[in-house]
């Protein structure tokens, strides 16, 4: 079978290439149904990463958030039409009991970064990179990857974090949203503060009944036990300094935002307060399984995720892809693509 792969070759230029599909016994053919654009995909599309990095990566198919249906499995573990979410993290070597999660291992590949992404007509996927999901709506399933990133961060918290803890989230975008959602799911009675610049976006955090939604951190009158930075960009250093000032001694600062440049941090106050600073990136198969469980079993989680779909765009040709990336620039939250090529 010949499949089409839609690859980024130059700034804002997508070309179609063709590849012969040769399945191994460990692979299943999957038809993508829905995809979601991530800020990382947009940076690649616009060549906003350093040129020496881009030269190493292109040509490359974009998108690492996708749901789809089984097209063919010669082993019969999956039935044709089964709904699945696609796991973009690909560990290459078997785990040697290192204790390092697959999304942090240096030998792992990642779709739309070090491996072709999901903009393909049919994708041969390792069967351990698929998660069956029963929601009857692949629109919400496409947000499983985004939710799994929050699950990865929240589930790494120490055991002594509990409902009595006070959480703070810097960032009112999609990552801040799913972190807040996951915290509410895991710690239903905890107090959660959201800090962001957009009053409109902050209204979407309606599932946090007892949170104060603030645009100005100076309004806060109590210290925070555990903070999640979900902003990224060039101002991360200043944002973390603000967090250091507001967090309780021996608190935890969790970094999820991505910056292309080195940042200055106030290490003196990190030491004086005895703070723990942890980085979180991407997610593992186990995180996907927990995210899928949250989506399948909890209606308010599904409804919350559907609320941050800013726009759905049907893709019938590779020319449509350009319009989708352009429109994504102006959307508050997630742009999803109905893959109809």
Can you walk through the features of this model?
The protein has 341 residues and is α/β, with parallel strands linked by helices. The protein has two domains: 2-146 and 282-339, Medium-chain alcohol dehydrogenases, catalytic domain (Quinone Oxidoreductase, Chain A, domain 1, Alpha-Beta Complex); 157-279, NAD(P)-binding Rossmann-like Domain (Rossmann fold, 3-Layer(aba) Sandwich). Helices cover 28% and strands 28% of the residues. The chain has helices spanning 39-45, 51-57, 138-141, 144-154, 174-186, 199-202, 236-246, 267-273, 285-297, 299-307, 318-328; strands at residues 2-10, 13-20, 27-36, 60-61, 65-72, 83-86, 89-90, 109-110, 123-126, 130-132, 166-170, 191-195, 213-214, 224-229, 247-255, 276-279, 309-315, 334-339. The strands form four sheets. Strands 3, 5, 6, 9, 10, 17 and 18 form a seven-stranded mixed beta sheet that branches. Helix 4 (144-154) crosses helix 5 (174-186) and helix 4 packs across helix 9 (285-297). It is globular and about 60 Å long.
């Amino acid at each position: 079978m010949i499949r089409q792969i839609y690859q980024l070759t130059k700034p804002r230029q997508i070309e179609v290439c063709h590849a012969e599909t040769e399945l191994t016994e460990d692979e299943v053919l999957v038809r993508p149904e829905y995809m979601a654009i991530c800020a990382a995909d947009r940076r690649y599309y616009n060549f906003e990463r350093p040129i020496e990095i881009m030269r190493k990566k292109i040509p490359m198919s974009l998108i690492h958030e996708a749901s789809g249906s089984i097209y063919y499995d010669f082993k019969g573990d999956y039935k044709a039409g089964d709904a699945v979410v696609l796991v973009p993290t690909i560990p290459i070597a078997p785990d040697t009991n290192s204790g390092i999660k697959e999304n942090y291992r240096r030998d792992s590949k990642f779709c739309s970064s070090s491996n072709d992404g999901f903009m393909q007509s049919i994708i041969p996927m390792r069967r351990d990179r698929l998660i069956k999901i029963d929601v009857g709506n692949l629109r919400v399933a496409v947000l499983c990857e985004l939710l799994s990133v929050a699950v990865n961060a929240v589930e790494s918290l120490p055991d002594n974090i509990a409902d009595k803890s006070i959480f703070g989230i810097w960032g009112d975008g999609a990552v801040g949203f799913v972190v807040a959602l996951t915290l509410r799911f895991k710690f239903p009675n905890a107090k959660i503060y959201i800090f962001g610049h957009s009053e409109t976006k902050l209204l979407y955090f309606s599932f946090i009944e007892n949170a104060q939604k603030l645009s100005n951190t100076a309004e806060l009158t109590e210290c925070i036990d555990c903070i999640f930075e979900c902003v990224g960009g060039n101002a991360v250093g200043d944002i973390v300094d603000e967090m250091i000032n507001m967090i309780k001694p021996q608190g935890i600062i969790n970094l999820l935002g991505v910056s292309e440049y080195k940042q200055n941090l106030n290490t003196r106050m990190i030491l004086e307060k005895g703070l723990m600073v942890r980085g979180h990136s991407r997610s593992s198969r186990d995180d996907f399984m927990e995210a899928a469980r949250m989506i399948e079993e909890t209606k308010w989680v599904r409804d919350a995720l559907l609320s941050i779909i800013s726009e759905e765009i049907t893709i019938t040709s590779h020319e449509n892809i350009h319009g989708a990336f352009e429109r994504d620039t102006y959307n508050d939250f997630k742009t999803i693509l109905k893959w109809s090529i």
